């Protein structure tokens, strides 16, 4: 390969900014983290010849479906928020971004309702049986990630209201959106595993 | 700021200003030095714990040390050496050297870098805080369930151990994110990935491994913590949980971990041998590609630690074969180093000496590794002193030898002074002889059936001699580490001024002053080959014509 050709392959200016590479790297490690929790859930899935309550008894699908719909649609709204920012429309950005936060909060409310039902109606805790152990750990860590996302997005929202976020410095917004898409993607797997396969 | 004001004047800044400067710094070089110092302190502590164990094992039926203290020493020795000595020392050197080698002014995220350091240190302190709760954990460094469950490990010591590892894991992870990002996005003009110095390349892959190996450990530790604090049942067999799962999760981290430790040492050797043989590295592409092969294959071999658990034959065969395959890229590297050194004009300074120690010892350690990788052999030797001997052979004969080569190689750059060659030679020979005497006999004791982690042993098993030689070796080794620390400290004041490039080396860190200024390079360099300084020194015959 000639010198010039080689330079064009590995271009001088790295194709992604450090912030983006850093976020991708972080998400790569998150794959390993959630991968482990998910594997543990799968591992215990068919060993649940244990005392009640079982997944089939306790899950109230309408609540879960509504909450999941909120989370899944928030991936679309955050994308629209980015598009608005790209067009330099701060108002549009604030609207879509705010809606994303609301959807994230609604998801958390859904999780809260579900947990409340599990705890008060069924007495299902982490120590009750293996289902409780794995369920609260996996879903809890996902909910923790949603909570962190909502907090970070709220900070971005505040900054945008103060006109601190523009099309010129939207890298931060982009990587927060990547994080949010990732959290969404994890929920696709967790939802399928916990509520569809695991029931 | 405070210190900078004093730099022009002759007056020394007050120590509070110096302390403030170091605690608040985000300079990758200062952070690297602090990682290094933290690691050296923990190295000495971990070494002292090993001495306690060797003292106890000096005689059969000995009662020199209480049994519970022995178990605590055993646990904390392993934990300390892996998580609070080896990991930080490698993180520190990578922090210092990698930005210099790629012509960058700092790491990609300087404040995250500082966070990583302090969090790692805090993790170490947390783990050691367990002593204040009435005794350190006594669970062994890989903490097999169900010994770690509440019923068997009462008291908060094990919780502190978990928290310490969780916290320092966050430190390792943030450091890895930082280093990987730095290498991917802050290289100077002309430095394509194919022109990376081999140390940077290998440190990069070690950190990619950290990204994928530490999170599973974090998840496993969280599960264990939930078991202990909230009554969860992950590893509790009575409630349907599985101690076996812990073994899988721990070794999924644990096996890549040894490559996380040895890859940077490989990198240091790959820098030192060419410079001290006055030859270009033989087969750069093969050394580089075999690094990637090791990084990937090492994620598929973890269950060779678990042959005795009773997995199916298919699983045994797969993990034995995969483990043997690791020998291929490692062997490629060894031949490359030999071919580089072969026919060169050797400069027998300390870095080269340690490289030769590394090459010879690491090959032997690799061979005992191949013995252990074969499942039938492992059935006999698993959890015996043979494993302890093998593991330490690779860790000390491989990682530490390479590490010392790197430390002496870069010491003049970091301090601006030469180390004492005489002390370094004393250290090398004491270490080598002590090392052979300590860990060689462990293999024999293991073959004779001595299990690892036993507090004491009966008289009539034939283990006595081997244990006494091992303890003698350990007592010979101990001063070598103290000489090392002494050499580093003493040479700060008495060492001859080193100059910018005392080894006539070829990578970018030698292009700046010793020690480098806080901004590293006055102008960001441009490189055209893998040996930019050679090009600079030999404009008539530059490397880029041939690469």
Concise overview:
The complex is a heterodimer of chains A (199) and B (547). Chain A has 199 residues and is mostly helical.
Note down, in words, how this protein is organized.
- The complex is a heterodimer of chains A (199) and B (547).
- Chain A is mostly helical.
- Chain A is built from seven helices and no strands.
- Chain A has one domain (17-41, 60-197): Cytochrome c oxidase, subunit III, four-helix bundle (Four Helix Bundle (Hemerythrin (Met), subunit A)), CATH 1.20.120.80.
- Helix content of chain A is 79%, strand content 0%.
- In chain A, α2 (18-45) runs antiparallel to α6 (130-161) and α6 (130-161) runs antiparallel to α7 (171-197).
- Chain A is elongated.
- The termini of chain A are far apart.
- In chain A, 34% of the residues are buried.
- Residues 1-12 of chain A have low confidence and may be disordered.
- Chain B has one domain: Up-down Bundle (Cytochrome C Oxidase, Chain A).
- The model of chain B has no long low-confidence stretch (mean pLDDT 95).
- The longest helix of chain B has 35 residues, at 67-101.
- Helices cover 67% and strands 0% of the residues of chain B.
- Chain B is globular, with a radius of gyration of 23 Å.
- Chain B is mainly α and 547 residues long.
